[in-house]
Amino acid sequence: MHLLVIRTSAMGDVALLTPVIMGMRKQYPEVEITLVTRRAFESFFYSINGIKLFFPDFKKNHKGLPGIFKMHHDLEKTDVDCVVDLHDVLRSKILRQLFRLSGVPVYVIDKGRNDKKSVINGKRKTGLKHSVLRYCDVFAEAGYPVLPADPPCIIPTPEGFSEISGLQLNADELNIGVAPYAKHKLKIWPEEHMQKLLEMISARHLIKIWLFGGHEELERLEDFRKRVPGSFLVTGNLSLAGELALMSRLDLMISMDSSNMHMAALTGTRVISIWGGTDPLTGFGAWKQPDNMAVRIPPEELTCRPCTIYGKGECRRGDLACMNWLTPEKVFDRLVNLKII
After folding, report:
1. Helices (H), strands (E): how many in the chain?
2. Confidence category of residue 35, pLDDT binned at 50, 70, 90
3. Are residues 322 and 302 in contact, defined by beta-carbon separation less than 8 angstroms?
4. 266-292, pLDDT tens digit by residue?
5. Which of 27, 86, 97, 197 matches a 20 to 30 Å C-alpha distance to 136?
6. Do residues 188 and 178 make contact, with C-beta atoms less than 8 angstroms apart?
7. Ordered domains of the chain (ranges, CATH)
8. Cα-Cα-Cα-Cα dihedral of 289, 135, 93, 117, to 10°?
């Protein structure tokens, strides 16, 4: 049996595939898996033996509608028996339909959009199924019930470890990763809060701070680095493989609801995640991290949150209370209570 699995973005969602693919390889070693994803995410799957990676070229060969037909032609040569669409976007819908027309069975993720809306509008207070488990559901429908793996699910490459060999991660220091930004402002804690938190931690422990983020955040990260003593800017200085290797060696990652949260958790590192307009209730929390590692204002204290699934939109109150009310002292107390510092 040859399964074609589709998930090309976003970074955090692709990373969350690793516990499922790892579980599939352990439980069904006879099943061939080809994963369609972006070349940029190759490092996520380095340690998972027995899978093939297909990297579409969305800028040239596989661009636009003609490119989707070309991709179908390229993939059809591999004798696909079943399509598992874990993305369910326009491109994957067309691609899976082409396979369906040629007689290949197709199974598609249920993203639970209505349930997520019910959390946002306050009608539902209980947590939804995690994204990892939604992926598992699709494999089960295809005939392969799978138990997802526990972290570490992303094992860094030798090249990644070689890249960080010159960095000083001293045993007498707490090596703390910090990912202070996210794609949307409803998911970003005020910079002064993060800076104050790091000052409070450094007053208690000898620490070294490693700053992570997207390349579009490079200028902000550099400015933040200048204001935080003992910090090192990772973004722009390490490849993704190097970042994953460094994450796996950290004592702690402090992150917004972002891809860095997912990547650090999947390498097996403890993650304190800070939540504003979004909430892990919707199924996007750090995989296998305890709920008390996710710090947020409880909905009973701030009834407007969560107000968004992915972070898009504007604060309806206008004061971003979900982030501003979450003081550095509250996060510091959580770290102390959890005996992390």
Report:
1. 13, 11
2. very high
3. yes
4. 999 999 999 999 999 999 999 999 999
5. 97
6. no
7. 2-141 (3.40.50.2000), 166-337 (3.40.50.2000)
8. -60
